[in-house]
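Justification of resources, computational component.

The compute hours requested in this renewal are based largely on the per-chain cost of generating structure records like the one below. Each record pairs the submitted sequence with a full structure-token output. That output is archived, and it is also reused by downstream analysis tasks.
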Amino acid sequence: MPKVILIGPPGAGKSSVAKALARIWNVDISDTDHLIEEQAGKKISAIFVDDGEEAFRALERKIVLECIESGAPILSLGGGAILDLDSQRAISHCGAAVVFLDVSIAQAAPRVGFNKDRPLLLINPRQQWLSLMEKRRPIYESLASTVISTDNKKATEVAAEIDSWMQARA
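The structure output for this chain reads:
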């Protein structure tokens, strides 16, 4: 069962922050995007093209619920994982600290690169990202135990901030 769950939009640095935090705590991480690709045997972008978003979301839901039930102490979720109601309930009730890693589009754009590996950001990526955030921000905020901006910060700095916050919370 996770101790902390990282949520946020593409480009917030969830995977990088999870790795940095894992180094501080000397624990393993579960990264749902990585686990989805591993289980499917292909990139997320290929799942979207070959199987469709619905198939991707079903696999994502399964993996999120498995990770919450028996995953590593640090769980990094894909940006859209919070859209599923079963996942939202599991996140809310698992007892983990939920950290919403927030980021501005100015900072997300160079991190994400708005490339082909982000299937929901292929056409007019800036506008798509803004549209995703408009829909997802209220969900991120409702699930969050805390919000940390990753703007102008390295993953190690954000991880240290999470570590300090977790220690103060204990």
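The helical segments are 14-25, 32-40, 44-51, 53-70, 85-93, 105-112, 125-143, 155-169. The mean pLDDT is 91.
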